[in-house]
Automatic annotation (TrEMBL):
InterPro entries: DUF2868 (IPR021296). This is DUF2868 domain-containing protein. It comes from the Bacteria. It comes from Alkalisalibacterium limincola. The chain crosses the membrane at residues 59-77, 89-109, 136-161. Keywords: Membrane, Transmembrane, Transmembrane helix.
Length: 342
């Protein structure tokens, strides 16, 4: 009876353990990888948001600094101040170097910078020269402009340029497969809208137009949605009969144009009783009736058709106001109806 060698079994168990450890590590790192990738994507898509927030922040700070600058100008323009440097341990050269360093950038913008003699004259005692007072005042204004207003203005311009460079607002890549479950919930391909057209036929379908006198009016026969193979036109023996057939909305509109707008025509609509008297077909019948003085419905082949279908058609036509005498089922009745004058 054979067996497994101990060294082979040990190597197999060790490999299986390593594989399990790698699988566990992968499962453990999976969420971290997803979160890291998501964070990078969010940061990438938030550049425009960062620029917008930067514009707002720098604009508010710039407004505050401009207000402070105006207050400083008002103070030095209408109030006399004495500028004095006082110290206990600092040597005079320290203040000379400090004033020179702080005044370097405002000096590039055209603001004056006190020299060493002016600085030394203001140590421990206010300067008596009026020109020295003006020099110190403009030095303070230059510092406010160079180290307060100018950096905020440059930062605001940089954010405006960045906002325009980043282009349009970030958009989600909805075509990515990761968004499919979310889109299936928030944007389903189909949704239930409920009943858009109830069973109340008489309440939603136009009624048949009121009949008018047709003495001297033309006769028209219009076939609506006839089945293929239906013999057409039928032989009715009516003189000056205008025969039309319409299986589509455009054909029906073209046929109705021949009726004119004076409503003098006698119109007979030929229908196949095998069709269902649904609301769309009944609407077409009612619409056609408003283009003629008198409208009738001829159920082709009514002599041999199913009596239940004929009864259903008569009931539905009665609901939209068609008189029973104008609902015809026999060939001879249709010919007689077209030949009548009133």
């Amino acid at each position: 009876m054979g067996g497994v060698r101990p060294d082979v079994a040990a190597r197999t168990a060790h490999a299986a353990g390593e594989g399990a450890a790698v699988a566990v590590a992968a499962r453990g790192l999976g969420p971290a990888v997803w979160l890291g990738g998501g964070a990078i994507e969010v940061l990438r898509n938030q550049r425009r948001l960062w620029a917008v927030s930067g514009v707002l922040t720098h604009a508010l700070w710039l407004a505050a600094l401009l207000g402070a600058l105006l207050a400083l100008l008002y103070a030095v323009w209408f109030t006399r101040f004495e500028f004095t440097w006082q110290t206990t341990v600092a040597p005079p050269g320290f203040f000379v170097a400090l004033v020179d360093a702080l005044g370097w950038l405002p000096g590039l913008l055209g603001f004056p910078r006190p020299d060493a003699d002016t600085v030394l004259a203001s140590l421990n005692a206010p300067a008596s020269d009026a020109a020295a007072h003006r020099l110190w005042a403009w030095w303070l204004v230059g510092i406010a402009v160079a180290y307060g207003v100018l950096p905020r203005l440059l930062a605001l311009l940089g954010c405006l340029i960045g906002m325009s460079a980043f282009g349009r607002a970030p958009r989600l890549d909805l075509a990515h497969a990761d968004w499919a479950p979310v889109l299936a919930r928030v944007q389903p391909a189909t949704h239930r809208t409920g009943v858009s057209d109830g069973d109340g036929t008489a309440s939603v379908i136009d009624h048949i137009a009121t009949p008018r006198d047709t003495l001297g009016g033309p006769r028209h026969l219009l076939g609506l949605e006839l089945h293929p193979g239906t013999p057409w036109p039928p032989a009715l023996g009516v003189a000056d009969l205008h025969v039309h057939q319409a299986d589509a909305h455009a054909e029906r509109e073209a046929a109705l144009k021949h009726l004119g707008d004076e409503r003098r025509a006698r119109l007979l609509l030929a229908l196949d009783p095998r069709n269902t008297p649904d609301r769309g077909l009944l609407r077409s019948i009612a619409e056609c009736s408003h283009r003629a003085a008198r409208t009738g419905v001829w159920l082709l082949g009514g002599d041999t058709a199913n009596p239940e279908r004929i009864a259903l058609w008569r009931e539905r036509l009665g609901e939209i106001g068609l008189p029973e005498r104008d609902c015809l089922a026999r060939h001879n009745d249709a010919a007689r109806w077209l030949a009548e004058d009133a």
